[in-house]
What we know:
Shape: globular
Order of helices and strands: EHEHEHEHEHHEHEHEHEHEHEHE
Oligomer: single chain
Number of strands: 12
Number of domains: 2
CATH architecture of the largest domain: 3-Layer(aba) Sandwich
CATH class of the largest domain: Alpha Beta
Amino acid sequence: MKALPDRRSIRRILILKWSALGDVALASAIMEDIRRAFPQARIDLDTLPAAAGLFAHDPRFERVLAIDSRARGQRLRMIGTWLRSVRAGRYDLLIDLQGSDHTRGLVALAWLTGCGIRHRWSVRPGWPCTLAPRGLARTAPAVDRMRALLACADLPAATALPVLHPAPAETAQAQRMLRDHGLLSARFAVLLPGSQAAGWLKRWGVARYAQLAGLLLARDLERIVVIGGPDERDECAAIVAAINHHRPDAAIGLTTLSLLQIVPISAAAALIVANDTGTAHIAAAAGTPLLVICGPTDPQRVKPLGPQVRAVQADVGCLNCYGKRCRLGATAQCLEPITPARIASLLLDASPDLQGLKLYGSMSA
């Protein structure tokens, strides 16, 4: 490994962080640490098109590259476009926060074709990087790997939350939604009941979320806001309908929000309950108490970043299978012990019953 450069000599930086959406949002905290460490440098971000919108109005970045060099049928053309963009950037430092075989190959190709990036840092050791942490398992949580890289570079890892910047118009529209729905002065909870379509096994389910909402409304909350994307619209509508059947107008569904509008909506909430989903990582930027319900995925790897974030998982024998189907039943058996009553107790009680549950993190409502 080469000696660390004088930070003042670093004028142009490219950060690579591609996927998944939640991981990109989580990495925004590391991006903030890098920005603070190099206040004089121009910093560009290389991410995939699906995540580029998270940074469309981000003052930390001069340019956001959104070149999908993995695109089927046009991979060679897109790799060429990527190489030309990197060459034009004349970067002094490239920081690969992804550390995948593909990003590693691209960085190697850039070096071999004369892009001339002298300093190449990565979360994964080995050529072509010039600085990387060692001794971490490849299965280590992404945030641990990224913070280990900062430590190798003698950079402080001081940012505790994701840092995202909604456009002023997005924030203003979110505030209008809160006002129009009578939420500005109400104590409400946000529910994020979805997940990517391929990860349906991670979904806690309509009936459980509706029952949890009823328990929260009976004890501590005034309103419920259910947030989801286009693919989750039917599930969100079913939860809202079930809640309002028992308590009219207590719940509203918001399924047309931009990703960044989730942040100001969540900032106004009293608490958030979510599946293991990318939008939970975005909501974590609000700093609101957040509880994530984990089934087949490892909470230590998927828990959003923040001092008020907690993840819960049943203590069963088939943990962390990451399966698309449950081999033990038609539904995720690892979610069965996580009942609405127990989640309500975790959220509202000073001494909840933890028998049979595993908790990660801390939270105060």
